Amino acid sequence: MKPLKRLGRKVVYEGKILKVCQDDIETPSGAHVQYDFIMHQGAAAAVPVMEDGKIIMVHQYRNALDRYTLEIPAGGLESKEEPTKLCAMRECEEETGYRPQNAEFLLSIYTTVAFCNEKIDIYVVDGLVETKQKLDEEEYVEWKSYSVHELLEKIEKGEIQDSKTVAAILAYYRKYCIQ
Q: Is 81 part of the annotated catalytic residue set?
């Protein structure tokens, strides 16, 4: 298959966490088309496992959906050079009030490959030491712990729809719970 060729990229909007671009693309037939593209710096997420085996989840408002969602703790990289492991551990502490002592890589996902390059590296974190939440001014986050089976049921019922959370819980279950 003959590849498509990017001829140019124009940034049409730059926000706090993303850039919106328009790409000029040449198709294999020679036609010129325009693709919209969202450029994201990247993110990391944590599956925080408590001593009793329950997983800490955060309940927070998501403006894009105009509702609260149940998710694993996550956040954007402070810079492209920041190690995702450190970001995942930081976000866990900020959102839950528990500082992880250990982090093990679980998987990477691209959230919306049709129009965005956001990549999220997901880690399983444990050895949780209670501190306190360190929320950003615009964040309103509450947390609660659940068993893996409770979370699988919430996924099946459509109560958890966030892609990083669904992928993380399913991968965690497969790697750590199925013998």
A: no
Nearest to residue 94, comparing CAs of 23, 33, 143, 164?
143
Residue 179 neighbours by CB under 8 Å, 6+ apart: none
Q: What is the mean pLDDT of each run of 10 residues along the chain (179 residues)?
A: 92 94 95 95 97 97 95 95 97 97 98 96 98 87 97 98 98 93
- The active-site residue, picked from 137, 138, 153, 159, is 137
Q: In angstroms, rounded to a whole number, what is the distance separating the alpha carbons of residues 120 and 45? A: 7
Phi/psi at 20 (nearest 5 deg)? -105, 125
CB atoms within 10 A of CB 110: 12
What ranges in the chain are assigned the alpha helix state H? 84-96, 148-156, 163-172
pTM for the structure as a whole: 0.94
Return d(Cα 40, Cα 15) in angstroms, integer: 10
- Residues with Cβ < 8 Å from 113, sequence gap 6 or more? none
